[in-house]
Design goal:
697 residues; 8-stranded mixed barrel; 26 helices; binds calcium ion; binds ligand C2E; 5-stranded parallel β-sheet; 22% strand
């Protein structure tokens, strides 16, 4: 084979080009270009000579990403490796590059030894691809496969063929968990299964492209495809019993003769992608809407830089409601894309796309900054803002710079860390637990509060919950959704909230839409709710108005009906007052104003169970009233702030335990009326209630 030995260096900085040339000129011929466009021209003229491209990302005229876009479209460049030169600030571009077909990375400034090594590797790899047989499985390589399929199709007459492409979901996990050897074993078993299946058909071309990607071209009939898929699945179950290996298989029924074989591959790939991440679906057929979706996705990807620069992304805020007071306590920041031509684009359309190719990392960081700017503005205006939570997507959770980025943000804007809460999605906790624990502990040390988001949406694990030191639990809205509500959802939700209480984790239930749901959540002791029932995600000005309105209703006396009840309570002969005394639970009503609490009214049960006669033992009397006062003061202060108050437990006297809940039942200006209820829990306490979080582990 003719050996290519020219390196194309694409960089706008002269010094760098000169340096690279010095390093490489003894081994290679070197061509140079100063931007993407020049590089494309250079390629067109020298494609058959160029062995490797070393590409800078940031360049004038046409940057590295744009270059990769154009480069990839030309199939004859498929086997030319591209090595990206990156500096650590654009690390998050890495995933994007891999998607764009980049082979490897080198860090700037260049280490000559490492660079030569990387180049050698890339050339080696591209030679292997040019080879006909794959070393691991002995199957055809991509190029050989394409050639064979081409000749097969050119000879066919009436027959219809199917182009099948499949891979293993999260194959990397197998390599990580069980080692590369085990990974190779899985690949080899697939190869031998393909060999077996091939004997059933007279025409059957198959190959392995790279990693875990395989392709087959076979006579099309639905049952043929099913036969192939079944055989593969049964075989994979046998190979590894512990790990549920799922494949994603896409099929393109070859109809259009004008298509090039790689384009057929692309169509089968589009189909395969549509079953990625879906547990129950392993097979999909290509249809034209997939191309439309891809174009839409491409649009969304192409627009992102401009959208960020032009601040088309906006922060919307959805209040979180403290269920004990029905007042808001902070909000969640949600992104909205206000596109100049297309109008509002819903996050459902672009977030999953950005998550897939890593761009979400950048969008997240943009949102965090906007939120910090907003908090700073509120603080400067003398407002006393409650915490705002931001979403942290998976790419960022595993970003080694994450802690640094947050630290920098709060330092730059002088924001107390506890004002910026971080929502980490549950599924991210399953991947690398050690790393995530380390990150969380650094964030905690800086003072950030962490919420586990979407709890219950994926493979929730109670174990994870007890090991992960999160501060709040956000429960996925699926438990409230109609079909699940009124049935199992309710029961599951109840036990989730109860379990969270065990772990001293306050919970926030999302997607609350009806008053029935609110009542239910209050009933099971959920601390916070978020949902359309209270407010949709609001524009910032709308949110500010929301807060003002809330303040005004408070000042007017927040619940008129409650005020009536309270007034009635002073009249000992009123029916409500009699009823109050009949209740079998001790209850006390307090007035709370500027840190001072005053007992207003108690019921009979309180007098008999809780009150201690001063004359019997003065010291004990003093001890009890001081303990109760201290306990309630703390609970009241938290409630006034808008924060929740955990149910408190205290030992009234030896082995007699009470759980105390506090609820604000009325408010006028700075005076609040609090209802304090005492539940005796001594029997629980003796069994398992006392198990602390630490013992539970
Ligand atoms: P999420 O974090 O679970 O956010 C809650 C979603 O539920 C939001 O959808 C919110 O508008 C919606 N929602 C709130 N209350 C109700 C309700 O009562 N009923 C119903 N049916 N829905 C309700 P949204 O804003 O469309 O966002 C969807 C997802 O996109 C979010 O789910 C989050 O995962 C992601 N997302 C949104 N903004 C950002 C962001 O700035 N960064 C990142 N990484 N992800 C974001
Ligand atoms: Ca969230
Ligand atoms: Ca959520």
């Amino acid at each position: 084979m003719y050996i290519k030995n020219t390196i194309l260096i694409v960089d706008d900085e002269e010094i760098i080009k000169r340096m690279l040339k010095d390093v490489l000129k003894d081994t290679f011929a070197v061509l140079e270009a100063s931007n993407g466009q020049e590089a494309l021209d250079m390629l067109a003229a020298n494609a058959d000579k160029i062995a490797v491209i070393v590409l800078d990302l940031m360049m004038p005229v046409m940057d590295g990403f744009q270059f990769m876009d154009a480069f990839r479209k030309n199939r004859s460049y498929d086997n030319i490796p591209v090595i990206i030169a990156t500096s650590d600030e654009d690390w998050h571009a890495e995933q994007k590059c891999l998607e764009a077909g980049v082979w490897d990375f080198v860090m700037k400034p260049y280490d000559p030894v490492l660079l030569r090594f990387r180049i050698k590797n890339a050339i080696e790899k591209s030679r292997m691809i040019m080879a006909e047989m794959d070393a691991v499985t002995g199957l055809y390589t991509k190029f050989k496969f394409y050639r064979t399929v081409r000749s097969l199709l050119s000879k066919r007459k009436e027959e219809t063929f199917a182009f099948v492409r499949f891979d293993i979901d999260r194959f990397k996990m197998i390599n990580n968990f069980y080692g590369v050897k085990e990974g190779d074993k899985v690949l080899q078993s697939i190869a031998s299964e393909l060999r077996k299946v091939s004997t059933v058909f007279d025409k059957f071309v198959y190959g392995r492209f790279e990693n875990d990607i395989f392709a087959v071209c076979m006579p099309y009939k639905e049952e043929n495809v099913d036969l192939l898929l079944n055989a593969l699945q049964i075989n994979l179950k046998r190979v590894n019993k512990d790990y549920n290996i799922k494949i994603s298989c896409g099929v393109y029924i070859i109809g259009d003769d004008s298509l090039d074989v790689p384009e057929m591959y692309d169509r089968a790939l589009l189909a395969a992608k549509s079953c990625k991440g879906k547990f129950t679906q392993s097979l999909a057929y290509y249809d034209d809407s997939m191309i439309e979706n891809m174009r839409q996705e491409q649009f969304i990807i192409n627009e992102v830089n401009r959208a960020i620069d032009e601040e088309q992304f906006e922060v919307y805020l959805q209040p979180k409601i403290n269920l004990a007071t029905d007042r808001s306590y902070g909000a969640e920041a949600l992104v909205r894309w206000n596109h100049p031509e297309r109008g509002m684009i819903s996050p459902g359309e672009f977030i999953p796309v950005y998550e897939r190719n890593g761009i979400i990392g950048r969008l997240d960081q943009y949102m965090w900054r906007r939120v910090c700017i907003l908090l700073r503005k509120w603080i400067d205006e003398g407002k006393n803002p409650n915490p705002i939570s931001v979403n942290v997507s998976r790419v960022n959770i595993y970003n080694p710079q994450l802690v640094k980025i947050f630290k920098k943000l709060i330092t730059e804007y002088q924001i107390p860390a506890e004002l910026l809460n971080l929502e980490l999605t549950e599924s991210a906790f399953m991947e690398d637990q050690d790393l995530i624990m380390q990150t969380m502990s650094s964030l905690h040390n800086l003072g950030f509060k962490i919420m586990m988001d979407d709890f219950g949406s994926g493979y929730s694990s109670l174990n994870v919950l007890k090991d992960m030191e999160v501060d709040y639990l956000k429960v996925d809205m699926k438990f409230l959704q109609n079909k699940e509500f009124n049935g199992k959802g309710e029961k599951v939700l109840t036990s989730i909230i109860r379990m969270a209480k065990w772990l001293h984790l306050p919970s926030i239930v999302e997607g609350v839409e009806t008053v029935e749901q609110v009542d239910f959540l209050k009933c099971i002791g959920c601390e916070y709710a978020q949902g359309y029932y209270y407010a949709k995600p609001l524009r910032i000005d709308e949110y500010e108005e929301f807060l003002i309105r809330e303040e005004e209703t408070d000042a007017r006396g927040n619940a008129d009906e409650n005020t009536i009840i309270i007034n009635e309570l002073w009249n000992t002969r009123s029916s409500i007052s009699k009823f109050f005394d009949l209740l079998e639970t001790p209850i006390a009503i307090y007035e709370y104003r500027k840190g001072k609490l005053e007992l207003l009214r108690t019921n009979i049960r309180y007098e008999t169970d809780i009150v201690f006669d001063e004359k019997v033992d003065e010291q004990e009397y003093y001890r009890r009233s001081e303990t109760e006062k201290a306990l309630l003061s703390e609970a009241f202060t938290r409630i006034v702030r808008g924060d929740f108050s955990e149910a408190l437990e205290y030992e009234l006297t030896e082995n007699v335990w009470y759980r105390v809940t506090v609820k604000m039942i009325g408010k006028r200006a700075d005076t609040m009326i609090m209802m304090v209820t005492f539940y005796e829990v001594s029997s629980y306490k003796q069994k398992d209630w006392h198990r602390s979080r630490a013992e539970w582990k």
